[in-house]
Design brief:
It is built from 14 helices and 19 strands. It is globular and about 80 Å long. The chain has three domains: 182 residues, Rossmann fold (3-Layer(aba) Sandwich), CATH 3.40.50; 188 residues, HUPs (Rossmann fold, 3-Layer(aba) Sandwich); 102 residues, GMP Synthetase, Chain A, domain 3, CATH 3.30.300. The strands form four sheets. Strands 2-1-3-4-10-9-8-6 form an eight-stranded mixed beta sheet. By secondary structure, it is α/β, with parallel strands linked by helices. Helix 6 crosses helix 11 and helix 13 packs antiparallel against helix 14. It binds xanthosine-5'-monophosphate (XMP). The site of xanthosine-5'-monophosphate has 14 residues, from loops.
Length: 506
């Protein structure tokens, strides 16, 4: 496959996904992975990613020069191109102002990488430094104001200053394809149906006749993991579904119907809502609420898993981005998101881990899910935070507020589906504010809570914009919520982007 060295650009996972979409295996490894380890993977090509630092900085992130002498094609993207120029004897300078956004590509000399790419196509730039002098043996292939693309075709070394992996780069896909197939001659052998077969066989082999426990949340990752494992070992899989009382409306029922009845999985549903609510009583601080919910979850899960005698494995829906994030050597502009999944492995539990989705990107997990027969709607659900409605009822949580929020949220989501908008936004939900305001209904004065409708569009959940939902649609949602949900008399729409706001309110 193709190995991507990670220098910390926020677009790195996109490079990996683009290549996998071409049915070629790609793997993202930290930039300082020893060359010997990289070579053990027998890569057909190596991509050096973008990154936030400067090659001229004191502790610059570098690679061994020998990387360029292996007869393996190398493509440097943004920082990766600057790094290549720097290491091979060229010069990288601080530009006057940097460049951010769209630029036009002026091809001065076509090569394998730019084959078939139109003159003047739009490319996406995001950099401060620029290549000022080419290394010996290199030629200039394209400009965009700055040096946009260089190569040493004989040594199969290529560089682009822009980001071909982002969709704003009109012909970026073609360039990556040129690299992967034209230059690296990679094979198309990454197929998800093969992945399913291979993984099912591996699970069977690893688990033997032992029991496996899995915490089913109803979310995409744990569900796909469960169905995949179930396909391999049937009733040896024991799912535990904890109803925290902080889930979406009818969530428990839906999970039992879909996975219990339809897939005939062995699921124990634990109604722990009273425990959670009583632990939360009187607590208003968001972080404290998170901690309480997280601890309680582990506690309940631990108790339940002890009931399943002789279980040797704990299965988790860990996916590739989780793995990349935990291995990544992040530069100064490190990712802000602290990962906060409820239901982490209780430390004293003595299980072997089973993580059948560890190698897959989210879109691949979804494809595997559909391939396994999970309905489309379930596979394309929005993410839902572990602490659930516990952090969407702002401030102190009680059963009544949770009920009000569930009703309002359900209406919003139902309308999104009805109007074919659900899959056009990345995450949508309702938040209940502890603020009451005056209204009038019929001839009566009302004094009730305020609900906020929130919908975000994002690729990676690290930055996001609010969804430009049609006014007419928002009008319908607002009137339905106010008319149908007792306890709410006012609806607001959240028009904050992230940053500086976050997607959730707490
Ligand atoms: P924020 O609010 O940080 O959310 O912009 C980014 C993504 O993370 C989810 N999120 C959580 N997920 N436990 C989780 O499992 C949490 O405590 C938590 N807080 C936020 C959020 O729903 C969004 O998808």
């Amino acid at each position: 496959g193709i190995i991507i060295l990670d220098f910390g650009s926020q677009y790195n996972q996109l490079i990996g996904r683009r290549i996998r979409e071409m049915e070629v295996y790609s793997e993202i490894v930290p930039f300082n992975t020893p060359l010997s380890e990289i070579l053990e993977k027998k890569p057909k090509g190596i991509i050096l990613s973008g990154g936030p630092s400067s090659v001229n900085a004191e502790n610059a992130h570098l690679v061994e020069k020998e990387l360029y002498e292996q007869d393996i094609p190398v493509l440097g993207i943004c920082y990766g191109m600057q790094l290549t120029a720097h290491i091979l004897g060229g010069k990288v300078a601080k530009g006057d102002k940097g460049e951010y956004g769209k630029a036009h590509l002026d091809i001065v000399k076509e090569n394998e990488l730019l084959k078939g790419v139109c003159q003047n196509s739009i490319v996406w730039m995001s950099h401060f430094d620029e290549v000022a002098e080419l290394p010996v043996g290199f030629e200039l292939n394209a400009r965009s104001g700055v040096i946009a693309s260089i190569s040493n075709p004989e040594k199969m070394i290529y560089g682009v200053q822009f980001h071909p992996e982002v969709s704003h780069s009109e012909e970026g896909g073609k360039m990556i394809e040129n690299f992967v197939f034209g230059i690296c001659k990679a094979d198309r052998n990454w197929k998800l149906t093969n992945y399913i077969e291979k993984t099912v066989a591996e699970i069977k082999e690893k688990v033997g006749d032992q029991k496996v426990i899995l915490g089913l949340s109803g979310g995409v990752d744990s569900s796909v993991a469960a169905v995949l494992i179930h396909k391999a070992i049937g009733d040896q899989l024991n799912c535990i579904f904890v109803d925290t009382g902080l889930l979406r409306k009818n969530e428990g029922k839906k999970v039992m119907e879909n996975y219990g009845k339809h897939f005939k999985m062995n699921i124990k549903m634990v109604d722990a809502s009273e425990r959670f609510l009583s632990k939360l009583s009187g607590i208003g601080d968001p972080e404290e609420k998170r901690k309480i919910i997280g601890n309680e979850f582990v506690y309940v899960f631990d108790e339940e898993s002890k009931q399943i005698e002789g279980a040797k494995f704990l299965a988790q829906g860990t996916i590739y981005p989780d793995v990349i994030e935990s291995q990544s050597v992040k530069g100064p502009s490190a990712v802000i998101k602290s990962h906060h999944n409820v239901g982490g492995l209780p430390e004293e539990m003595d299980f072997q881990l089973l993580e059948p989705l560890r190698e897959l990107f989210k879109d691949e997990v979804r494809k595997v899910g559909e391939e396994l027969g999970i309905p489309h709607e379930l596979v394309y659900r929005h993410p839902f935070p572990g602490p659930g409605l516990g952090i969407r009822v702002l401030g102190e949580v009680d059963a009544e507020k949770v009920r009000i929020l569930q009703e309002a949220d359900d209406i919003f989501i139902e309308e999104l589906y009805k109007n074919d908008l659900y899959e056009k936004v990345s995450q949508a939900f309702v938040v209940l504010l502890p603020v009451k305001s005056v209204g009038v209904m019929g001839d009566e004065r009302t004094y009730e809570y305020t609900a906020v409708v929130r919908s975000a569009n994002t690729i990676d959940f690290m930055t996001a914009t609010w969804s430009r939902l049609p006014y007419e649609f928002l009008d319908t949602v607002s009137s339905r919520i106010i008319n149908e949900v007792r306890g709410i008399n006012r609806v607001a729409y959240d028009i904050s982007s992230k940053p500086p706001a976050t997607i959730e309110w707490e």
